[in-house]
Hints:
1 helix, five-stranded antiparallel β-sheet, four-stranded antiparallel β-sheet, mainly beta, elongated
Amino acid sequence: MxxxxxxxxxxxxxxxxxxxxxxxxxxxxxxxxxxxxxxxTDTTIIQQLPSMGAVQPQTIVQPQAEATVEKxxxxxxxxxxxxxxIKSPIIGTFYRKSxxxxxxxxxxxxxxxxxxxxxxxxxxxxFNEIESEVSGKIVKVLVDDASPVExxxxxxxxxxx
Length: 161
């Protein structure tokens, strides 16, 4: 079972509404718990290594997913209500640049289109590029570079006009 299969399984379980699912195969044991961490999905994987007979536990907190976009809520200022909010699809560390010596993917005032890379989020030593699902202009970056982010945390405000 590869990482993509595990991520798809996590997504399926999260959508199914089940609180806990355990899967045991001859060389792997997976436990997926949903709903008890403010909407986050926790997954523990224990894989038997055939060559050494050792057990190597891993924990996946949230699978990679597409960024979600929502209208700003009415509780926010009227000036921000016309903006779209791009939220984090995963938990991890937010980076505005691909490397320390590279320029930021986007700056305030930049025009973006669907599919443009906005940032990367590092999760489990994997750098996941977060792409825009909307076109518009970056109004505000809501997270500092190299800061931890939670699932569904707002990252950017975008003016779609």
